[in-house]
Design a protein that fits this description.
heterodimer; A: alpha/beta; 7-stranded mixed sheet; 4-stranded antiparallel sheet; 11 helices; disordered C terminus; B: alpha/beta; 6-stranded mixed sheet; 3-stranded antiparallel sheet; globular
Chain lengths: 356, 315
């Protein structure tokens, strides 16, 4: 891993972007009506780095909510009818500017599922290979950010090629990979030697601003069945509407569904986000649903993120502390509370002690 | 409305102690500003968690569907109207319920208030007609009337229409309210403009179905969008499918919607899909003189035939 900390004068920023646009498709945070989202930047468009974070996570850059993957024709007069063909993808280089460290770490977590020695999701793997990640450190985290207690942080660089830090009229750029070096070279930015010692100080300051924490130390030790049968799930799940907000806004939720959509004599196969909150997610063709109740579905989501994942991958919890589900849940189900409940669970505990 | 809290606790505790109910459904304080969480108490001790303020916009009737227990439920005006609708539609029986009536002075619009401040909102408290917002370390006092949820601003049923207990004396209903200004504005658009308006309104939709699931009317065992055999609607992000979901859902609510605003409140991307149900609510009011959920003994207009029903659509 390359680690090179350089100073980058902001005056040359937009000129560098112009040079980059010739070699990369550029994506970045843009304010759309009320909220920020990651979008392909138009020819003269600048990414807006004044954002706290985007409403939806940038996972959709690699794993779109609805992605056509295969196309087919049912027209028998055509030579290649009923042959499944890959939908062409643009796999030329692209860069995501301003991705937050939590969302970049989330990419690494999702990658554990989509790129394994046995199975590779080609759509994810190809999109990931084509992408350079230019991170933006968080100097003003939100009160619902709890990244530092889940193996991440406002200056965390996992999954990034470059980490940018705002520093007045400069960026401090931490070049982390060869992809990052190439990106910097393409931009033509001059990076004269300068004093970069402020990096560590700023990092410590930002970390100190993360005041929200969760305890995860005990999750691995807990008995899976005891946790599954814990008495608090009724209380935890009561308010849940079983909508897909938490799973759709989550940067680490990776579940999808395959759907064929045929119109007349041609059609496409789509890979769509799915949600364990939906009854349809587990409905069998027999009509039986192994997770037929709300309680079962809510339990599944938290057990997956905070227990099954922990046990299977030994990489901490399947959560990067971005706080999106906390902020956007319509009924205020707060993963921090549930994580603490689970982590602190002792078998035999009464439900009344946790319902307050 | 903060003064309701003690009374809510007192009534709930009594009902649980004397065994008249198995559980009480209410709200507990949320972990974020302007958020409360629906919750239940099964023991007299658990009533301590109950709160009441201007952030109880979720419709609690939604939590009654097909329950078997005897239930005490904290209900503001719109919740009570959806309880009536639930009773009419056999989703709960009147005998199972003890309705703890809350005269409601309106809920505040969290989307609107968040949009008024560039800094993250740290705290929101209320003091009578004032809402005190702390953002960026600075406190701002807002008039509550200016930051009410849109449906609350035009509400004419603040007092529960059925009740077994009152947490406070009924309050005066709002008079001379123009309930349908927003609908008329859309009605007056050209069809092209209206289409463009709907298009832009629905463009942020991620089909999380929070609106549907927050709605007490949406209790179908399998919603039409979730049907697989046959599959009525595509499940991706095709705008036609997104529109089909919203439009058909609204039609399913015709003559049943009480304009409680739970759908709009629940939406994570701030879509005011309430304008669709509101249009149908207006039509029901104007054509049948009908307001949903007022009287458990009256059948809804789309459920009955009367010789003098309007027939303008048949031309």
């Amino acid at each position: 891993m390359i680690m090179k900390l350089v100073k980058l004068d902001k005056k040359q920023w937009s000129k560098g972007l112009d040079a980059l646009r010739k070699a990369y498709r550029l994506y970045g945070p843009v304010k759309d009506q009320e909220y920020y989202s990651f979008k392909r930047l138009d020819r003269d468009e600048q990414p807006d780095f004044s954002f706290l974070n985007s409403r939806l996570s940038p996972k959709s850059m690699l794993f779109p909510q609805s992605e056509a993957i295969i196309k087919y024709s049912l027209d028998e007069s055509e030579k290649d009818h009923h042959i499944m063909k890959a939908v062409e993808k643009d796999t030329t280089s692209r860069a995501i500017l301003g991705i937050r460290p939590c969302d970049a770490k989330a990419v690494s977590l999702v990658n554990l599922n989509f790129d394994t020695p046995e199975t590779k999701d080609p759509y994810w793997v190809e999109a990931l290979a084509a992408t350079t990640f230019i991170g933006l450190a968080c100097d003003n985290p939100k009160s619902t950010c709890f990244c530092t207690s889940v193996g991440c942080g406002p200056y965390h660089d996992e999954g990034l090629d470059i980490l940018l830090v705002e520093d007045g009229d400069h960026y401090l750029a931490n070049i982390l990979t060869e992809k990052g070096e190439t990106f910097l070279k393409t931009a033509g930015w001059k990076t004269p030697d300068g004093d970069t010692s402020v990096f560590d100080k700023k990092k410590a300051q930002a970390e100190a601003k993360i005041v929200s924490t969760v305890a995860t130390d005990n999750l691995k030790n807990l008995d899976i069945m005891a946790l599954h049968e814990a008495p608090f799930w009724e209380d935890v799940s009561f308010a849940c509407l079983n909508c897909g907000t938490c799973t759709y806004t989550c940067p680490t939720c990776w579940c999808f569904d395959l759907q064929d959509e045929t119109h007349g004599k041609s059609g496409k196969r789509f890979k769509n986000w799915d949600s364990c909150m939906f009854p349809l997610f587990t409905l069998h063709t027999t009509g039986h649903n192994p997770r037929g109740t709300k309680l079962q579905r809510v339990r599944q989501r938290f057990m997956h993120k905070l227990k099954y994942f922990v046990d299977k991958y030994d990489q901490g919890i399947m959560c990067v502390g971005c706080g999106r589900c906390v902020n956007q849940c319509p009924v205020n189900i707060d993963i921090r509370k549930i994580c603490d409940l689970m982590n602190g669970y002792e078998v035999g505990e009464q439900v009344s002690s946790v319902s307050k | 409305m903060l003064d309701y809290i003690d009374k809510i606790k007192e009534i709930s505790e009594r009902l649980l102690k004397d065994g008249s109910v198995d559980m009480v459904i209410g709200f507990r304080k949320g972990s974020l500003p302007m958020m409360n969480e629906p919750c239940f108490a099964r023991t007299p001790e658990a009533v301590d968690q109950f709160v009441w303020d201007s952030n109880c916009g979720i419709n609690l009737a939604n939590y009654l569907t097909d329950r078997k227990e005897k239930i005490g439920i904290v209900a503001k005006g719109c919740d009570s109207r959806n309880i009536v609708t639930h009773i009419i539609e056999n989703k709960i029986s009147r005998e199972q319920l003890v309705v703890i009536g809350v005269p409601c002075k309106g809920m505040i619009d969290k989307h609107k208030i968040s949009g008024m401040f560039s800094d993250e909102i740290q705290q929101v408290t209320e003091n009578g007609d004032k809402v005190l917002v702390t953002a960026g370390g600075e406190e701002t006092a807002l008039d509550k009337t200016g930051v009410l949820q849109k449906n609350c601003a035009v509400c004419t049923h603040r007092n529960p229409v059925i009740h077994d207990e009152w947490v406070a004396d009924p309050i005066e209903e709002q008079q001379d309210i123009d309930r349908y200004a927003d609908v008329r504005e859309i009605e007056s658009m050209s069809s092209q403009d209206r289409w463009a308006f709907f298009d832009s309104l629905l463009s942020p939709c991620i089909r999380c179905y929070a609106c549907r699931n927050a709605c007490p009317l949406c209790y179908c065992p399998t919603c039409f969008v979730d049907e697989a055999k046959p599959q009525w609607v595509g499940k991706g992000q095709d705008p036609t499918d997104v529109r089909t979901f919203h439009f058909l859902r609204a039609f399913h609510c015709a003559g049943r919607c009480t304009d409680c605003g739970a759908c709009e409140r629940a939406c994570p991307v701030g879509i005011n899909m309430r304008v669709f149900t509101k249009k149908l609510e207006k039509d029901c009011f104007e054509q049948f003189g009908w307001e949903a959920g007022i009287n458990p003994d009256e059948r809804p207009p789309l459920d009955t035939y009367r010789p003098d029903d309007p027939d303008d659509i048949m031309r």
